Amino acid sequence: MYRAEDEAAAIELWHRTWQEAYPDIDFASRLEWWRERWRRDLVPKAEIMVAEQGGTLVGFVTVDREGYLDQLVVAPEHWGSGVAYLLVEEAKRISPKGVTLLVNKDNPRAIRFYERNGFVHAGEDVNPTSGRPVLKMEWKA
Question: Are the beta carbons of 44 and 64 closer than 8 angstroms?
Answer without folding.
Answer: no
